[in-house]
Design a protein that fits this description.
The chain is of the alpha+beta class. The protein has helices at residues 2-24, 30-40, 70-82, 102-114, 140-152, 170-179, 197-203; strands at residues 46-47, 86-90, 96-100, 128-133, 156-159, 162-165, 186-191. β2 (86-90) and β3 form a beta hairpin.
Length: 206
């Protein structure tokens, strides 16, 4: 009896871990990422009939989808529907629209945060962008993630929890604050003068 209970508990734990792994599985394929990003950008993709049919028949496909072979596109649709990253919405005329699910929208946000970069302007406007944060210890993991993300996009840490960058990046910082849900703990500012400017110019090759 004890052996049966242990086996059941082990199976339950294994399924729980397996489920978590499925939730966190990342997508590295450029084609798969582009597929979801195009849907996220509102580029229409539709089927001429019901999604319950054995073979998908596409409606007129926009040129943005020409980067991918049709057979592979079929497979991606089936795969992403199985993973609940896309939904099928049936139209009144019997055709079907393929749209991102809520889970798919979250995945697209992950792609955007992964690919976030600060663009270098043709001419520097001589302003310094600073990010300050005071994140409580109970959110230490989020604090470390934020610190690494700021470094990843080119910020330099000039003292504990104070980062600096020379180029415009308000939109990028705003997106980071929203994505990690840290808006209440992060502040952004721009300054014209800073005491160690000569050193910073060397650091940023200005």
């Amino acid at each position: 009896m004890v052996g049966i209970i242990v086996s059941i508990l082990f199976l339950f734990k294994f399924q729980e871990v397996e489920s978590k792994n499925k939730k966190t599985r990342r997508i590295y394929s450029p084609a798969k990422r582009k597929f979801l990003l195009l849907l996220g950008a509102g580029v229409a993709l539709g089927l001429a009939g019901s999604p319950r049919s054995q073979k998908y028949i596409f409606k007129k496909v926009r040129k943005e989808w020409n980067f991918i072979d049709k057979d592979y596109l079929y497979r991606l649709i089936r795969e992403f529907r199985h993973e609940r990253l896309v939904d099928f919405v049936e139209n009144g005329d019997g055709s079907t629209r393929i749209v991102l699910s809520e889970k798919g929208e979250k995945r697209v946000l992950e792609f955007r945060i992964d690919g976030l970069r600060i663009k270098e302007p043709l001419r520097w406007d001589k302003k310094w962008r600073m990010v300050f944060f005071d994140i409580p210890e109970k959110k230490r993991r989020d604090r470390n993630i934020l610190r690494e993300k700021l470094k990843e996009i080119g910020f330099s840490e000039i003292q504990k929890s104070v980062f600096i960058h020379p180029f415009p990046c308000l939109d990028e910082i705003d997106f980071i604050m929203e994505y990690y849900k840290l808006r209440n703990f992060v502040r952004y500012g721009e300054v014209m003068n800073i005491s160690n400017e000569a050193e910073l110019k060397i650091r940023f090759n200005l």
